[in-house]
Specification:
This protein has about 250 residues and is α+β, with helices and mostly antiparallel strands. It has a single domain, classed as Alpha-Beta Plaits (2-Layer Sandwich). Helix content is about 40%, strand content about 15%. It has nine helices and five strands; from the N terminus they run H-H-H-E-H-E-E-H-E-E-H-H-H-H. Strands 4-1-3-2-5 form a five-stranded mixed β-sheet. A hairpin with a 3-residue loop joins strand 2 and strand 3. The protein is globular and about 40 Å long. It starts with a helix and ends in a 19-residue tail after the last helix. The relative contact order is 0.14. The N terminus is likely disordered. This is TEX47 protein. It holds the Pfam family TEX47. InterPro entries: TEX47-like.
Amino acid sequence: MSFSGHTQKAIKKTFPTEALLMPQVPRGNYLHLQEEKQRLQLKKFLLHRMFLVAKITANMEKKDIADYYEQVFQSILKHHIEEAVTGFLLIYPTSILHILESSSGTLYQILLDHLDQEKNGTEFFIQGMKIIAVSHNIPTRLFMQWHASVIKVPVMYLDDVTQTQSLGEVITEFLTQTHKLALHLLKTVKVGAKGPGDTLHQLAPELLIPEQIIKYLCKSEEFMNPEAFLNMYNRPIHITLDSEVIWPAPSRF
C-alpha cells in the first residue's frame, strides 16, 4: 500500500490534471496569423524566382515603370487566378533591377508582354533586358508582396568591381547582395505595408547593388534576353528512348 500511494503521488506531481485536460495551443498575435495566412495562400503552385536587369530610356518617368508592371500583373491575374506576383523593383537613374516570384505561367506571361511591347512599333522604355538567373521550385518566397523603389539620389561607390573581377565573381556578388536586400526587406516590411518607397537608398545604402554592375550585366552576351528565353521555353524536348532505336543486325561476315 505504501508503494502504491507513493507512486500515485509521484504521477500526480509529474503530470498535473490541468496539463492533461487543456490543449496546448501556440500563442501568437493577429499580425502573425495574417502573415501565416498569406504564406499558405502563396503556396498553391510551384514557385519560381527570376532575376532581371534592363536599361531604361533617358528622362523616363520612374512612376510609369512601376505602373506598367502593376497593370501587367493585374491583367495576368485575371487568367492565372491566385498566382500572385511578389518581388522587388529597383529603379536606378538609367537601369532597373527586378526580382519576380510566381508560377512559371505567370513569369512566362510577364516576359511575353515585354516582348510584345518591344515589337509593337514604338520605342519601349525598358530596353536591353537580360535574365540573370531563374530559381526553380523554391520552397518559400523572399517577399510577401511586390514593391517598387526609386533610387533618386546617386549612390557613390569607391571602385568599379566590373573592371577587376571575372563575370562569375560579379554574378556571385550580384546574387549575394540581392538576397541580403531581400532578407532585410522580409524582416522590416510587414504584410500590407507599402514598403520602403523611395527612401531605400537612405535606409540601407550598403545593400544596394551598384548601378555599374547592372549595366555590366545588361551588356554581357552570356545571358539570354526575353526572346531567346521564350524560344527555349517553347522548344519541344525530344527524347529518344533505347526501345525506339533500331539497331543494325550484327554482320555474319
